[in-house]
Known about the structure:
The protein has a two-stranded antiparallel sheet with strand order 1-2. 79% of the residues lie in helices and 1% in strands. It has helices spanning 20-43, 49-75, 84-116, 124-144, 152-178, 182-215, 220-253, 259-262, 264-291; strands at residues 3-4, 10-11. By secondary structure, it is mainly α. The chain is built from 9 helices and 2 strands; from the N terminus they run ββααααααααα. The longest helix has 34 residues, at 182-215.
Amino acid sequence: xxxxxxxxxxxxxxxxxxxxxxxxxxxxxxxxxxxxxxxxxxxxxxxxxxxxxxxxxxxxxxxxxxxxxxxxxxxxxxxxxxxxxxxxxxxxxxxxxxxxxxxxxxxxxxxxxxxxxxxxxxxxxxxxxxxxxxxxxxxxxxxxxxxxxxxxxxxxxxxxxxxxxxxxxxxxxxxxxxxxxxxxxxxxxxxxxxxxxxxxxxxxxxxxxxxxxxxxxxxxxxxxxxxxxxxxxxxxxxxxxxxxxxxxxxxxxxxxxxxxxxxxxxxxxxxxxxxxxxxxxxxxxxxxxxxx
Length: 292
């Protein structure tokens, strides 16, 4: 059930745009979650369903934090805003989203390690993930203590440290999934890293940009400036995501096209390729509209 606003658009009770234009980012976000689920199902093929759910939650939380922090540090500029209040409102929305991602990291990280390392020592990758699980909540709480303008430099330093910790955990995640094989680790890192930037941007757009534009129409131009910066990253993100995904699929199935429909893993890879094709099409449409 929705609510009709003054402009005639239908919104959910929290004020999120669900018009056809506003629905598209939701579709992108949902497809990214589905693609991540398929990828984890393939990479953790022999694991239990519960273990796969925890690993999926872990990679989504890591990606959301990594991509979101990149957006916050590199793409978001408070100088774009004429009002400090509008900039603080956008930051406040992101902090709530970030808090959910930290909670997801805790749950997914603890669950994935517990279901995968009961009777053996943790490997180096799992240790790196564990460090991130331990430090991320502390750093998130610390950021909440340095919000005033006088300590803006400290806030930025803590946020960069937070980003470094999350990136370290993401590298550890890739290391564990590839069992330390260096080239495969680099490919997997590229795949998960591009996913992180994409889903981090999707989080920003869905849960920060759209609600902020509706709540603060005067800040729309400043908010959209950051969105345009992210849009320029997307072609490179998609290329890296696609190339590394194809390499990993070839490693699983070889070069047999028939394996895409004749094997369980192939059918899952086909689903992921379809998801990527739809995502690429949506991005291409948006880029074309932006140029016009």
